[in-house]
Amino acid sequence: MVGVHLVGADVLLVNLGNEEIHAYDNRCPHAGSRLSEGRLHTNLLQCGTHLWEFDVRTGEGVNPSSCKLRSFPVKVVDGAVMVRLDKAGT
């Protein structure tokens, strides 16, 4: 898990192995805290500020379940991670 600042965006990249990489807005939807400063336990990301939890495979909220991370399309091309910032999900 790493936070990367790109032009116009602060992106959280989560590598689950086997080229399964997910990209999210690096801000918790609750209070805007940097998610890269939280903890990752297998597939569960916990915000370091208020302990909100998210499934990093889907971006869905776990605790609480009523929220979701903003995602970006990502793919690996010849070992390089490509993130498309203009196609953010909800």
List the helices and strands and how they pair.
Layout: E1 2-6, E2 9-15, E3 21-25, E4 39-41, E5 44-46, E6 53-55, E7 61-63, E8 71-72, E9 74-77, E10 80-83
Antiparallel strand pairs: 1-2, 2-3, 3-8, 4-5, 5-6, 6-7, 9-10
Q: What do these coordinates show?
A:
By secondary structure, this protein is mainly beta. The protein has a single domain (2-87), classed as Rieske Iron-sulfur Protein. Helices cover 0% and strands 43% of the residues. It is built from no helices and ten strands. It has strands at residues 2-6, 9-15, 21-25, 39-41, 44-46, 53-55, 61-63, 71-72, 74-77, 80-83. The strands form three sheets. It has a four-stranded antiparallel sheet with strand order 1-2-3-8, with no helix packed on it. A hairpin with a 5-residue loop joins strand 6 and strand 7. The mean pLDDT is 89.
The averaged pLDDT comes out at 89
Second CATH tier, the architecture: 3-layer Sandwich
| Spatial ordering of strands, largest sheet | 1-2-3-8
Q: What best-fitting shape do the alpha-carbon axes yield? A: globular
Oligomer: single chain
Name the CATH class.
Answer: Mainly Beta
Give the biggest beta sheet.
4 strands, antiparallel
Any idea how many domains? 1
